[in-house]
Amino acid sequence: MFRHILLPTDGSALSLKGIRAGVKLARALGARVSGVYVIQPFIAPMYADAAMYVPGSVYEDYQKAAKAQAKRALAQIEREAAKAGVRCASRVVEEMQPWQGILKAARKGKCDAIAMASHGRGGLGGVILGSQTARVLAHSKIPVLVIR
Prior knowledge:
This protein is an alpha/beta fold.
């Protein structure tokens, strides 16, 4: 059935729920997993009539913090996979929209499924807050298992 399952994470407790379900599925199927964390690029603040100087250290601080968060989040996947005896690889992707980074990682990793959690927001809450899961579902060419 599935041989390689992508497990996106943002480091939240909710994404951990999706990770655990994905690892459990991988173990049952004898599949491997890949974790992915998407870092959004740093965008310097701009104002209507003027550009703003941003020292290089601000960009470097942002990158350092984002990579540290990615490392912590991906460590959750690696721990869960190790506990279950499932092979695991991790990667960090930089992309403006997290859902695009998730799909990019799935393509590059030749994954045949994605398992991820969702808040399950619908209606106005989903429109205002947006849903990375809904966008992955809408654009994915491979099966997506949504954990609630």
